[in-house]
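Consider the following input, taken from an annotated entry for 4-hydroxy-tetrahydrodipicolinate reductase (Vulcanimicrobium alpinum).
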Amino acid sequence: MRVGVAGALGRLGRVACAAIEAANEMTLAAVYTRRGDSPLPHVHGFEDLDAFVAAGLDVIVDCTVYPATVDVARAALDSGISPVIGATGWTDEDLLVLADRCDDAGIAAMFVPNFSFGAALMMRFAAQAARVMPRAEIVELHHETKRDAPSGTAKLTARRIHDAGAPLPAIHSVRLPGLVAHQETIFGGIGETLTLRHDSLARDSFGPGIVAAVRAVRTQPPGLTVGLDAVVERMLA
Ligand SMILES: NC(=O)C1=CN([C@@H]2O[C@H](COP(=O)(O)OP(=O)(O)OC[C@H]3O[C@@H](n4cnc5c(N)ncnc54)[C@H](OP(=O)(O)O)[C@@H]3O)[C@@H](O)[C@H]2O)C=CC1
Ligand SMILES: O=C(O)C1=N[C@H](C(=O)O)C[C@H](O)C1
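Applying the prediction step yields:
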């Protein structure tokens, strides 16, 4: 499988390149970076998005930032390539437009605001907890160079809680040096609280989920899938 990485020189992009390189059935065939530099000497770097999507790719893992990520996804779909989008900052409206594009193009895509399995489990458990303890608030804590707030993980957790029938939780964002990516989802009941906490202590935590998402998007029916839920459900089955 020929995989391309957009935003390959960024923090997430470098993890994606390493994970794809290490995956048996995948070849890191090309990268897209703003100056055309490649993190790996044997992988061609493109600075032109149209040339990148014309490089014979099966899947593009997008690790750029919003709003560039919207252009990458659109270019992938226009070229018949499945995007696996890791960049966050997408609005609900952007995602609706993306879902329509996937349907119109008949192509499978994934939007995965957090590739770590632990975060996927936290969101699953949060949706379960919300059915019993519907009052919740989310505190997300990230490194100080993160551009978007609230985080994509927090927004998806809030949506999962709301989809479970509970009120949409408030989200509190903390940006401090020393942090990587952390979240507490706190449920309050009568005389008790339940806290679900997830910590990405290193960005390596995103590698296995990136590979799993690339595999999953190849077997998925056309359309947009949000999150790693289906992947995690299969592991739990
Ligand atoms: N899904 C997940 O599990 C995770 C998601 N993220 C999300 O991924 C995104 C990237 O995070 P992170 O790697 O920390 O950020 P970085 O700033 O380290 O990397 C962002 C990359 O995007 C590139 N970029 C910026 N602007 C443009 C543009 N206009 N066109 C093309 N490329 C551009 C940058 O290129 P250049 O090097 O040239 O500046 C850089 O390589 C964020 O949205 C973040 O929230 C982060 C971690 C995990
Ligand atoms: O920018 C980050 O670092 C991260 N972004 C994602 C998000 O917005 O949820 C995933 C993870 O939290 C790291």
